[in-house]
Structures are given as C-alpha cells and as structure tokens.
Amino acid sequence: MFSLKKSELLIESCWLLAGNIILAIGVAWFILPNDVLTGGLAGVAIAIEPIFHITPEIVINVLTVVLFLLGAVILGKRFAAKTIFSTFAYPMFLSLFSYLANHVIGADVFIMDKYLATIYGGALMGIGIGCVFRTGASTGGMDIPPLILNKYTHLPLPSLVMLIDALTVLLGAMVYGLQPALMGILSVWVSSFMINKTLMIGGQEAKNVMIISNKHKEIMEYIHKELNRGTTLLQAVGGYSQEKRPVIMAVIVKKQLHDLQMIVSHIDPEAFVIVTDTNEVQGLGFTYKEEL
C-alpha cells in the first residue's frame, strides 16, 4: 500500500489543522453571531435554535460526533480513519473561538451587516473545508449524509451535497423567512466557490490543445523548440472520410496560447484546433523541476 513520507505527512497534517481552525473561525466569528443561514451543521444549528432553544455550539458539537459514529458504522474503517481528527478537532476549535468571542474579545465585535457576515463567513468556511479536502479527509458533519446516500443510491455526490444544503436552507426559510434563506444560498455559493479555489492552490491553470493538421511535424517542432513544451501524437480516423490523421496534443500555459495559435495559422491555415481549459497539470515543466 502507498504510504506518505514524513515530510508529506507533516504537510497534510498542517493542511488538516489549518482547515479545521479556519472553518471554526468562520462559523464562530461570522456565521453564529449573526444567525446566518448556510449549509452544513452550522445551518442546521441556526435553523433549529428558535424551535428547540438549544445553543448552536452544542448542536454542532453533538451532531458532529453522532454523524461521525453513524458514518463509521455505515461507511467503514477507512472513512473513520480519515475523518476522526476533524470530528474532534472542529468542535474543540469551535468551542475555543466561541469562548474567545463571547468572553475575551467581546461578542459585539462580531455583530455586523448580514451581507458581510454571509460573504466572509462563507468564504472562511469554504477555505477551511477546502484545506481539509486537500488531504483526502472529510470535515465530518453534514458531509456524511450525502456519502451514505451515495453508497446506496449511487446518485452523483455533488448533487446529493447540494440537495442536503438546499434542505437545510429550506428548513431555515420556514423558521426565519425568505430573505435569510436567500442569504443562506449566497453563503453556500461563496463557500463552494472558495472550496474549489482552495483545492486549486499549487496547481497551474493551463490549456490542453488538440491540433489536426497535415503539417503536424512543423507544428510539433515549433512547440518543442519555441514553447519548450512536449507533445503527444495521437492517431485518429476521420468519421466521414475514414482517413487516418495524426492529432497533436499539447498542454501549454495560458500565456503561450496566443503564440501557438498565431504560428499554427501561419504554418497551416486549414488546421483544426481545439482548446480546452485544464485546471491542474502535474509533470515535468509544471509541477516538477526541469533538469538543467
């Protein structure tokens, strides 16, 4: 089985620790003080507070442990091993930062405009969750019901996550009304956006270019010598003509796209070029150092 080096294990531990701290700060200092509806356990805790009159911190801490135990039973030991740290670290940090806000810094400091709390709280939650997801772990909590449903229904996991978040916001709408629910949707969107951005840290945005041309040798030579990028030659067959044609595949950084398009149009004006976005590339020249 693949095992991490000590340095890699240390880096993953730092991501995991930082993620739980940032998530707890976003919830304790922005979401809870301003009763912002959002997805996850924070949204559930805020939505049911007027009904059961239970402190949100207690609801979050209890449900985090309960859902972890449920996930461990249904999803297995591997899930439990990856999630156990967040299950106990997140409630601990949430209690710590809530105590600091209420008894040390002062609760009034964190009472702010709802829109600011929604945006910044959602952003911090997204960054925190993204940091945890980078390690392949889970934050536990409301990540677990979608995972359980996915196991038995095989429905797409992103759709199930959105469904659970939508039900959470709907519950809040029944208690607080339409406007807080709409702000909750904004919080969920900001959080999702920041999760994706956090997962992209360290990656390099690039373009995957597919070129079909009879002058493929000249184009490949330019890519190799001028752009200092590698190419892969694929063999394709025309669907209508049934003729065999070589297809050049090259991954380049975004700023090189214009030069490549110009030279391709100069070498072969009839070349067929397909360009797609590539969010992350690993390999020589992108994530590994080139040999000098």
UniProtKB/TrEMBL annotation:
Keywords: Cell membrane, Membrane, Transmembrane, Transmembrane helix. The chain crosses the membrane at residues 9-32, 58-76, 88-111, 117-136, 157-176, 182-200. It comes from the Bacteria. Its main location: membrane. It is a multi-pass membrane protein. It holds the Pfam family YitT_membrane. InterPro entries: DUF2179, N-reg_PII/ATP_PRibTrfase_C, UPF0750_membrane, YitT. GO terms for cellular component: plasma membrane. It is found in: Cell membrane. Residues 229-283 form the DUF2179 domain. This is Membrane protein. It comes from Amedibacterium intestinale.
